[in-house]
Amino acid sequence: MPIGNIDVPVIGKNVTIAVLVQGHILFAAFIIGAVLIAATSEYLGMVTKQPRYERFARNLARFVVLLFASGAALAITFVVALITLFPVFFSYLQNVFFWVFLVEAFMFLGQIIIVYAWYNVWDKLAYRKALHVVFGFVAGFLGLMAMTMIDAVASFMLTPSESAASDAASTFLNQTMVPLNMHRFVGNFGYAGFLIAGWAAWRYLRTTREDDREYYDWMGHFGLLWGFGFTMMQPVIGYGYLKGIRESAPAAFDTIMLGDKAWTFNLLMIWLTIMGIAGTAYFVHKLRFTVRPMPLLRKLAIGGLAFTALFSILNVIPANASLIPQIGLVFANGADTTIPLGSMYPWKYIGLIGLMLVGFFVIALYLKATASGFQWGRASRWSQYALIACAVTVVFTMITMGYTRETARRVDNEPGYLIYNCITLDQQLTPETCPVEGLAGGSDI
């Protein structure tokens, strides 16, 4: 059997890798974000002397420890599957990024050691709280460094550097490495925050004890601050990332923004709309329960909710009548029937920038009210359903973003690439189009 010609029955090797990678990312992104959120909460508990921060940090740390094994197992399974199913591709990738993979392995090992030590010495370092908080931040930092190494590889696959394959600096800092890393760094906090808020809402709806209702009400509020606040940064960061793709891999950019996969961007905007409206509605609701009544802030927040809906509509309007051609969801003359309000310029830009600015405005109002305090345990059921909707939607958002980025290299399968313009999906080298000197020829590797 030729090397690299192994396949997986029924689903195929492409789907196998996609499922393993996406599963691992869902675990890993939450772990990185949760560790840093927990460490921050522990620090706030140390400074403010409020026990809810300490309770939250310790419970979240315990959950991370339990979750770590599953995430690590998926990562190892993914690497084994990649080596087995795509050996030619992986051999080139390993030669180019050997030192990156090595550093990532040590960062991952260090994160495991520090995370388990951080949780296990919680009581022993109760009177040396500052040192214990440092443990948590170090664990989060090591996780971020491991993520950065992988982001260098992922960004190179879409936008390979126009230099020699042996040029470590250029391959690492390729054209989209920095915006992708920023996108994932911010995304980890937003993703973990929304999931924390959704879990708190679920617990709030099920508990009957008054003290637990107050705690889970506060926990939902705390999680949403992280989720909503960081997600509102994504439009401008995402624009920078898309700009890098457009300049370095124009055919890939056309695939996901103008081609048959353009529907993925509209789907992403639908998820962002749900999270934006649900999150803003939750803030408006909570402003009813401030310790000191703030009717003006609530009226301003209601106005912000209206503008959130308006800008969200601009974001979800498709550019043409070809919605999802893969399943036949096409109207009128399809791609030939343009929808003026669905064009990227200026309407999508207005929608994204407007959504971000309104989001920051609303969260600023909410933080101002937070300074005076809330009456915890009095939230309505529908507000908790809004938090759960955000938690479910952010998972779909992660999956959609991952699919969009990876499918960009397929260039509508004419041909599809594992490394853009360098190695095709069937592991064939394309030296005539590859910008990386030595990758296809092998002289510099």
From TrEMBL:
GO MF annotation, one: metal ion binding
Gene Ontology biological process terms, A to Z: aerobic electron transport chain
Group of enzyme by EC: oxidoreductase
Alphabetical UniProt keywords: Cell membrane, Electron transport, Heme, Iron, Membrane, Metal-binding, Oxidoreductase, Transmembrane, Transmembrane helix, Transport
UniProt key word Metal-binding: yes
A GO term from the CC aspect: cytochrome complex
Record membrane topology: Multi-pass membrane protein
Domain of life: Bacteria
InterPro entries per record: Cyt-d_ubiquinol_oxidase_su_1 (IPR002585)
Localisation per UniProt entry: Cell membrane
E.C. number: 1.10.3.-
Transmembrane segment boundaries: 15-39, 60-90, 96-119, 131-150, 185-202, 223-242, 262-284, 296-317, 349-367, 382-403
Similarity comment: family membership: Belongs to the cytochrome ubiquinol oxidase subunit 1 family.
This protein's name: Bacterial Cytochrome Ubiquinol Oxidase
The organism of origin for this protein: Rubrobacter radiotolerans
